[in-house]
Amino acid sequence: YEDEYSVRYSKFVKDELRNVYSQGLDISKCVNPHLSTDQIREIARGLEQGLDVTKYNNYLFGPYEMEEIRKGLEANVDVSHYASLEFFYDQMREIREGLQKGVDVSKYADPNLDSQCMREIKLSLESGIDLSRYAYVGRSHEVLRDMRLAIEEYR
Question: Using one digit for the tens of pLDDT, what is the confidence trace for 12-67?
């Protein structure tokens, strides 16, 4: 019988935990009844590479957010800029890519900006143009793109 202290895992989660254990990885990082199989896989991927999975071992991060943080750790960038529950995975990707390219992500690492606006600001910064002051909630990424392309064309 199940009492209040026992934890129930689905067959899929149990199989994934067995996988982690059979690889000789630290299964204690994956034992959480709130983690999905996809989240366990992301944690295992980080463990396989010797990464500090505590940066994303939080069941509140979806597997895509976990993946972006793991990719940042793999690239040896400071994930503290985006390893936050405030960001969606697509926003995290734009910040991670900016960090990898040496862009000043403080210009657009704002959870209120959608990922498409973040991308346009990142691309503008890569081109030596700072459009961050023109980005605000509600401003279309198309407007930012048009501004960036026009400036690039007339340089």
Answer: 998 999 999 999 999 999 989 999 999 999 999 999 999 999 999 999 999 999 99
User: How far apart, in whole angstroms, are the C-alpha atoms of residue 136 and residue 152?
Assistant: 21
User: In which element (H, E) is residue 92 found?
Assistant: helix 89-100
3-state SS assignment for residue 109? coil
**Measured on CA atoms in the order 126, 127, 132, 134, is the torsion positive or negative?**
negative
Quote the DSSP letter at residue 137. Answer: T
Spatial separation of the C-alpha atoms in residues 83 and 42, rounded to whole Å: 14
Nearest 5°: phi and psi at 135?
A: -95, 125
Neighbours of 136 (CB within 10 A): 11
27-61 burial by CB neighbour count: b if 16+ within 10 A, else e? bebbebeebebebbbbbbbbbeeebebebbbbeeb
- Residue tagged 């960001």 (tokens): 87
Report residue 41: phi and psi, to 5°.
Answer: -60, -40
Q: How many CB atoms lie within 10 A of CB 25?
A: 18
For residue 83, the SS3 value is coil
Closest CA to 37 of 1, 54, 13, 67: 13
